Amino acid sequence: MKLFICTLTAVILQLVFVAQAKLPDKSQIMTDMQRVADWQIEHFHDDMERENEWENRFNAWTYGALYIGMEKWAKMAPTNKYYEFLLDVAAQNNWDLGPGKYHADDQAVGQLYIELYRKYKKPHMLAKTLDRTNWIMNNPSTQPMRLNHYKYTERWTWCDALFMAPPVWAKLANITNNDDFRDWMFAEYVATVNHLYDKQENLFYRDEHFIHERDNGHKIFWSRGNGWVFGGLTLILEELPQGPQKAYFTRLYKDMAASLIALQTQEGHWAMSLKAAALYPTPETSGTAFFTYGLAWGVNNGYLDKNTYLPTIERGWQSLTSHITSDGMLGYVQPVGAGPGDAWPDKTEVYGVGAFLSAGSELYKLAQD
């Protein structure tokens, strides 16, 4: 009887939380997005204090992820200043990708250049991204599909890579009407799935070193790592024509979505280790933002049932906005890493802001006036 009462109480508390976590109106979503975007632009150079030189570039993956969300916000914003910011950054980068010829992280910024090309139709915006991807396709890496302590990074041997590079290839296939980009991407993507995807859990290991590792008996599925994959799937699916490739990505996306809604905490965030929330009680906003974005995108685009997924989306957004500081900083973003770790209310990262702005762009479409 006591167990029944405890269970009933937990269910009632969860239902109360769900009832409270309703979407704000569109104007509030716009306000929250603008506060976070403006704070990030004002503090744009702060991340340049990193010790690692490879992260201290405005065309690094960290910034590339920011630009994806910032460009989504720029489309919504009542002023052109956000596109002006992005154009200025791209010009500072000389429209270059990162230095690693094959490295997926160094292709992520290409997504910004492609979207700016789509808006402004200036050939120089696309030229270097096209050159890089053509070179990779014509000189395929012979490295094995394994990371081996970062010995092999020319192929997509870690799950984060599935956000950074594949959308570039899918977008280029549409822009150039060249299916070779799409086919090359698909083959490499499937190879990564076969290597890192757990078909029982419908989640991705971050890389090979986590496949057999356990944390107090729990499989280790890093929240942001799976967020990279899930968010990246939406960017790919938007570009694909009907056919076997789209069916493959659709099934992967839906299977992940079904797993993710079962793993959300009662507080609305996703734990840094998805299957071990009790071990990582600290909120974390980058993974949560990517999941909230990806699920909202799925409802908006007819991939997911609204009645099933909306409560999860609402709780996710409420959790995210509760961690915006009074001056507009998005807190509790886990620092650069490769697995579950720590996060703090007064610490942020540019990629977390990019994920938040992406989530807001889809929440805006869901919200009522």
UniProtKB/TrEMBL annotation:
Signal peptide: 1-21
Keyword annotations: Hydrolase, Signal
GO terms of molecular function: hydrolase activity
Keyword Repeat annotated: no
InterPro entries: 6-hairpin_glycosidase_sf (IPR008928), 6hp_glycosidase-like_sf (IPR012341), Glyco_hydro_88 (IPR010905), PolySaccharide_Degr_Enz (IPR052043)
Superkingdom of source: Bacteria
Protein name stated in the entry: Glycoside hydrolase family 88 protein
